Amino acid sequence: MKKECVILGIETSCDDTGAAVVNGDGHVMGDALNSQTSLHVSMGGIIPPIARDLHVANIEQVVTSSLQRANIKVQDLDAIAVTVKPGLALSLRVGLDHALKLVRESSKPLIPIHHMRAHALTARMMKKINFPFLVLLMSGGHCLLTVAKDVDDFVILGKGQDEAPGDTLDKVARRLKLKNLPQFEKMCGGAAIEQMALKGDPTTVDFPNVMTQWSNCNFSFSGLNNSAHRFIKKSEEKYGTPADGIVENAPDICASFQYSILKHLAKRLQRSLLFCDMNQMLPKERILVLSGGVASNQFLRSGLEKVCSKYDCEFVCPPPELCTDNGIMIAWNGVEKFKRGRDIMYDPFNVKVEAKCAIGEDITEQVGQLSIKPDRIKLI
Fold it and tell me: Which of 32, 47, 136, 264 is the most exposed place for a label (fewest CB within 10 A)?
């Protein structure tokens, strides 16, 4: 296995333009990021053509800045890694086109990257984590429970059935009109709810549990979203909230809604750990890696860490800046692949982007067939 290498990573799967240079030891030599969050918050959500145009406007500067900060030229790289799946097709195309341009100019190989696998493996840059290990990925577009068996070998235990948690948090934040408060004006919905929840009581609103009739590890957040919308409407009517105002009990709603999401996540994490035990899928010293943008939420982190403690499972979560989309995770995934000699493409001009692409083999039905009933755990 090769050790010495220097990889450029490019990330444009959604609304952040990221680039980074990482070496074989996991040292970040230079990185740069342009976030579109504040603009999309002001527009009420991500609009793909606008996201694409902003990537086009910023990608040259972002990549150049990461190379300059690393004090390295493209010719000195060993390879160029770029996200090609899954994500917004229009956004992915911008990153791939720029990577191919650099490949043409430098004759360096391309390493195509799966966005969700990159999220899952970021923690291996921070500390030594041996395969296999359990991963819970939570973001604006995905929610997955998976066992990482190798850098390109994953098994899906649970997956989202409708909305992703980040999307649901954004929708509830918009319904609460949190962006009308100055402190939340440019903040994504999930972060705004987390901050507002600090002033609330998570036991005030008893949002219903969802998917209780199925004993699997799959996720559903649309029902929670609908319940929250109905409760917000009733609260606004109760308190006579003006059209552009924030309902009086917003902190309690935010805190309780976060708690409902935590309970949903925790039950499936418990079930996945029990399933892995029954099928000897993890080593004796088990590890859970929590990643994805929603993993930045400290309340959810704390609760899921309690689940891991109950099951003698080590809890590992990258710092918030590495949970959200970034070029570092793409470069690091490129490093891992380069060391193993996998997906190193010297003639990559037929590579296509894929808006949808599973992270690995789906065994979610097998999980459900066992009807595993986890014990209750005190989460707060």
Answer: 47
Identify which of 60, 84, 91 has the alpha carbon closest to the alpha carbon of residue 74: 60
- 341 CB-contact burial (10 Å; exposed 0-12 / middle 13-18 / buried 19+): exposed
Beta bridge partners of 33: 18
Q: Map tokens 């992915």 to a residue.
A: 92
Amino acid sitting at position 229: H
Beta-strand pair 314-316/6-11? unpaired
How many CA atoms, within 13 angstroms, populate the side-chain half-sphere of residue 201?
A: 5
Query: Measuring CA to CA, which residue among 361, 287, 360, 307 is closest to residue 129?
Result: 287
Distance CA 368, CA 282 (A): 19
User: In residues, how long is the chain?
Assistant: 380
The CA-CA-CA angle for residues 309, 126, 261, to 5°, reads 45
Give the max Cα distance, the chain: 66
pLDDT digits (tens, 9 = 90+) for 270-314: 999 999 999 999 999 999 999 999 999 999 999 999 999 999 999
Helix axes 222-239, 250-278, angle to 10 degrees: 160
| 74 DSSP β-pair partners | none
DSSP 242: -
Q: How far apart are CA 143 and CA 292, in angstroms?
A: 9
